[in-house]
Design brief:
CATH topology of one domain: Jelly Rolls
Number of helices: 13
CATH architecture of one domain: Sandwich
CATH class of one domain: Mainly Beta
Strand content: 15-25%
CATH superfamily of one domain: Jelly Rolls
């Protein structure tokens, strides 16, 4: 899944909050409400805005596709903000400035505008972007959990990165799925859990002031702690919990958890957990009655949020699609009868 693919999903599935409008005040009001308070100036007086904003929300996370259609400058109206903004360019160019740092962005790059310093965004008319909004308090609390701090920890992300991890893109896509799939409407905890996963992935994979601490040398946990982690994950397999929750349960750091799994099993805890969920799903589908269950219900019961990824991983592991295994279980049941 590429940034362009995600941008198209947001446009197709999202609420169109702005539709090619040239009203500057209306654009500022809507973008302020859904992203961040700011001031907007059209750089060429003879040019008119042609702004469009498509919006999806999943808990306190929001996904937005934003295009101004004119050369504009965005700047702050308050010394500190309440959100982190991850910009994933789809097309065009922009110059971002945050504090004393500047970066020129285009497709293939990424930027996080943190909430602590003044910012200025000089955006060209052709610049098209997906913007992920994360709540500042949640990011700082998650950073505290990952670093073992008793208080919220300020996070200063590098303004720009040359690329964004496929893992993060996969979670962004999952956020689109969660916010638009009516089958998931009654599972509000998933939104919180997915936001935690997004935040942890950003903290661990995108350069920031905590990167050395998060990636530094840590103590290797005992085998008992690793077994305790495995037991916890198996007991909570249907839930889409974060690995930091597992680490907290075992009273170790997330890095220690990763090191222990590599030592004991030769796998990351995430890969081990995925394999257990796939095995559970296969066992359930192979024994199920197709008249009373579905692949979707089985995937959700095994902790999978993104159904497309579930199907692909299932086929890669077992050589058959989930629906094929479910149909075969029906034939087996008919023979048994």
């Amino acid at each position: 899944m590429s940034v362009a693919d995600i941008a198209e999903l947001v446009r197709v599935r999202g609420d169109q909050l702005l539709a090619t409008t040239d009203d500057v005040d209306a654009v500022v009001d809507v973008v302020t409400s859904n992203l961040r308070p700011h001031a907007l100036r059209v750089r060429d007086r003879g040019e008119r805005l042609s702004a469009r904003l498509d919006h999806l929300a999943s808990g306190s996370v929001s996904l937005n596709r934003l295009h101004y259609g004119a050369d504009v400058t965005i700047s702050e109206v308050a010394p500190e903000q309440g959100e982190f903004l991850l910009s994933l360019p789809v097309g065009g160019r922009a110059r971002f400035a945050y504090g004393d740092t500047t970066a020129v962005l285009g497709p293939g790059a990424a930027s996080v505008v943190s909430p602590y310093r003044d910012f200025r965004l000089d955006i060209d008319g052709g610049f098209d972007q997906v913007v992920l909004r994360l709540d500042r308090q949640r990011v700082e609390r998650t950073a505290a959990l990952l670093t073992g701090s008793a208080e919220a920890v300020p996070v200063h992300f590098d303004l720009a990165a040359g690329s964004v991890s496929t893992g993060l893109l996969g979670l962004v896509e999952a956020a689109v799925q969660l916010s638009t799939d009516p089958r998931l409407d009654n599972r509000p905890r998933l939104a919180v859990q997915l936001e935690t996963l997004l935040t942890e992935t950003l903290l661990l994979g995108y350069p920031n002031n905590l990167s050395k601490k998060l990636g530094g040398a840590v103590e290797s946990p005992s085998s008992d702690r690793v077994r305790r982690a495995m037991e916890y994950m198996l007991a909570n397999l249907p839930e889409s919990f974060s690995l930091s929750a597992v680490a907290r349960h075992c009273e170790i750091s997330l890095r220690s958890l990763q090191i222990g799994f590599r030592r004991e099993l030769g796998l990351s805890p995430g890969n081990w957990l995925r394999a257990q969920r796939l095995d559970r799903a296969h066992a359930l589908l192979a024994a199920a009655d197709p008249a009373s269950t579905t692949v979707t219900a089985t995937a959700l019961a095994c902790g999978f949020v993104h159904l497309g990824d579930f199907a692909a991983q299932f086929k890669q592991r077992f050589g058959q699609s989930p629906s094929t295994v479910l149909r075969k279980s029906d034939r087996g049941g008919s023979r048994r009868r």
